[in-house]
Amino acid sequence: MNLFGHNHPHVKAALAEQLAPLDHVMLAGFTHAPVAQLSERLGALTGLGHAFYGSDGAAATESGLKMSAHHWRNIGRPAKSRLSV
Hints:
This protein is mainly α. Helices cover 51% and strands 0% of the residues.
């Protein structure tokens, strides 16, 4: 809890309230009410039709790169596959 408010009681109570209804958060093709609500809020804020969740930063980055490659392929530019870092 050091990262989130240095053990502040208000922060601890908010975290406990949010974590209590979920035993485990791995989606793996499943869903639950909090993630559905979050997805709807993100969709409303961004105008996108859906959300994708990665299990960690590496998986999210890999998925983003794959989505980008698929986007270019889907719009007829499959040669646009080079990643510049």
